[in-house]
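Format notes (please read before filing issues)

Several people have asked whether sequences and structure tokens are stored in separate files. They are not. Every record keeps both together, in the order shown below: the sequence lines, then the token lines. Line labels are part of the format and must not be stripped during preprocessing.
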Amino acid sequence: MSSWDRSRSIPWSRAIPVAPATASGEKEDVDLMKERIWRDLSWEAAQENKELKEQRETVSATTGGQSIGGVGESSASNNDASHQQQLSSSITGDSDDVQLNFLGYKGRPYQTSDLLRNAAFGATIGSVTGMCFGFMDSIRSASSSTLLKSASRSAQGKFVFQGTYRSGMFFGAFFTVFHTFKYGTRILVDPGDVGEISVASLAALGGVMAKREWRVSMPYATMLVAMDAFHVFMREDGKA
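Then the structure lines:
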């Protein structure tokens, strides 16, 4: 029996791996050797794949450039022509699909959620700012009035509280109308930020000027509109 036959009859599955010794006599770690061998095999496989890929690219480049050069140019020109035709048809289709509203303007699509969002924003900002205005005016009136100075603490507090929540309700309604008109102008005409603010200002401030008792709040209302315009233009410039 040859050594090859004898080696085949050995039960290798039951053999205990023995770590080979180095030149210094120390035993090397088997797992470390396995990892090293695996890295070498992986590197060799990657190199072989890279060489094969490069060979395929060179072969395809040479054969493609020689055999189908004219066909490729003609197909590319046909693809470009068809792509331009599709673009022109899509542009004309989009221009045909544009529908004007009853005022003759393009406008923007209406969404109830956007309307409610704008109205809620105006009500919140207007109410908070109006309450601050009303609180300051009530404190000023209470400190300057001789009648309120002689009144009790509870009466003074009641006066300040009433002035605060009344001013908050008034400016909340005012700013809600302002932002509602802004959104309506954007939907119907879409003139841009300047046009929206101008139309909404005329509507809201005109309503304040309609009643004589509301004209006292005109400076504060104008300040709210100016703050909103400043915020819009600073946001467009990328500074806010």
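For reference, the curators noted about this record: The CA atoms of residues 153 and 159 lie 10 Å apart. DSSP finds eight helices and no strands in the chain.
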